[in-house]
Amino acid sequence: MKNQVMIPLISLVLVLAGCVSGDSYNDGLAIKEQLLINTGDNHKLIEFYKSNLSISSEYKVKLVQIYLDTNDIQSASFYANTFSDNERKLPQFILTLARLDYMQKQYDSALIKLEQYRRSKGVSYDYYWLSGLINAEQKNYDEAIINFGESRKFGASDRSVNNNIAFIQMMQSKYRQATDILYKLYLEQPNDKKIQSNLLIASVKSNRLDIALDVLKQEHDELSAKRILDEVVTKVGIATSFSEEAKSLKAADAVKEDSSALAKVSSPRSNQNSMASSVAIGDIEHDTPRAKSDSDVSISYSTLDETYVMDVEKVNVGSNSYRIQVLATNRVIPPSLLKDLKAKHGVVYLYQEGNLKRYCVGQFDNRHSANVVLKEIEISGAFVVNYDPRRFIEL
Predict the structure, then answer these.
(1) Which PROSITE patterns does the UniProt record give (predicted)?
(2) What is the mean pLDDT of each run of 10 residues along the chain (395 residues)?
(3) Can you list the alpha helix ranges (DSSP code H) found in 217-319?
(4) What is the rounded distance in angstroms from the CA atom of residue 393 to the CA atom of residue 178?
């Protein structure tokens, strides 16, 4: 009787041990996968997926996805052909096949698969995002912008959406509009390489070479930045060189330049003779003492890192739009400072003249109203200006 009881008990223990062992093994795979993802070692991640294809079909679709992420379309296509008929009915597999079609420029086929994905209860974010990319490639620009707007409702970041909308405007040769969007993104996060790349091209195309130079000086000294800019100008087909454009900038007269304040290049360059060759041409995302405000003479005021002397008459245009300048600097202000200005004074406006960035708040129809507010906010060194309203960028 004891033997009869012990046999099923032993069997039960073995079954439970097997379950625990299997769960532990799967947990180990998940941990290893996440570690490889965190390190960014795509080669090792690919090998990991390959070696575990027999364990889960999930690794098969992830393998194709990472090949697409690394632009290895041939390998992605090879493994996509191993999807079973049943797997091809699953949302994640359908989306992956749609991505493959998109990257192979088979846009109509990709759109058909996206509709399948939507009907299969696929994630709305992915549906609208990829639809936007496809419509952009097919030059359905208005539809693409709508798609990206919809993706925002389902979790797409404002930053990524705005970058893609700006890129679409570049595709439409609307370079000034694109520059306005990208410059705001750049000011929020100056080290974003993708934004830098797009802004560089948009600003050159829209003849805002002051902005383009500012972007280049994030990583290059002044001389190198100007040389690269000349090469980029030539590359994108703008006739005016930086040296010619600089002659027309009012900042050349209004601002005392200080080259020592420019950022220095942080890494060695192997090819100084063709520095523009490393510049990416566009990319879309696949995934502050107070001064008298009405003075007619030059006003000295403090900035973040320099003391400049500005002739107000050279930048005031006599318009009926007045603002209060609270800060001027030749550097992009930190996001924390911009956030603080917005919290205290509402909308912040940027007026750039050459390398000098003037940050302003408020908007008034007359100087008297502006002066009333100026006395209330009590910002040291602030004063009323009436710069050309067309050149303000709302941050």
Answers:
(1) PROKAR_LIPOPROTEIN
(2) 51 49 63 83 90 90 93 94 94 96 95 95 92 94 94 90 93 90 89 89 87 86 85 65 35 25 23 33 50 27 28 43 85 82 88 79 88 83 81 81
(3) 222-235, 242-248, 251-254, 312-315
(4) 12
- The residue whose two tokens read 């080290």 is 191
Count of domains forming the chain:
3
> Using CA atoms, how far apart are residues 205 and 175, in angstroms rounded to an integer?
6
Q: Regarding beta strands 322-329 and 383-385, do their DSSP bridges make them parallel or antiparallel, or are they unpaired?
A: antiparallel
Model-wide pTM > 0.85:
no
Q: Does one domain contain both 149 and 219? A: no
Question: Taking the CA atoms of the chain, what radius of gyration do you get in angstroms?
Answer: 28
H/E element, 93: helix 91-103
Give whole-number Cα distances, 52 to 57, 63, 91, 184, in Å.
9, 10, 21, 45
Q: In this predicted structure, what is the pLDDT of residue 273?
A: 32
Q: How many residues does the chain have?
A: 395
Q: What is the DSSP letter of 297?
A: S
Domain ranges, residue 241: 174-278
Rounded Cα–Cα distance for residues 94 and 37 (Å): 23
CA distance 165 to 136: 10
The C-alpha atoms of residue 217 and residue 18 are separated, in whole angstroms, by 61
Q: Measure Cα distances from 140 to 137, 147, 178, 285, 383 in Å.
A: 8, 11, 17, 17, 46
Same domain, 274 and 327: no
The residues, ordered by sequence, that sit 6+ positions from 110 with a Cβ below 8 Å of its Cβ are 98, 99, 101, 102, 130, 134
Tokens for 89, please give them. 């009915």
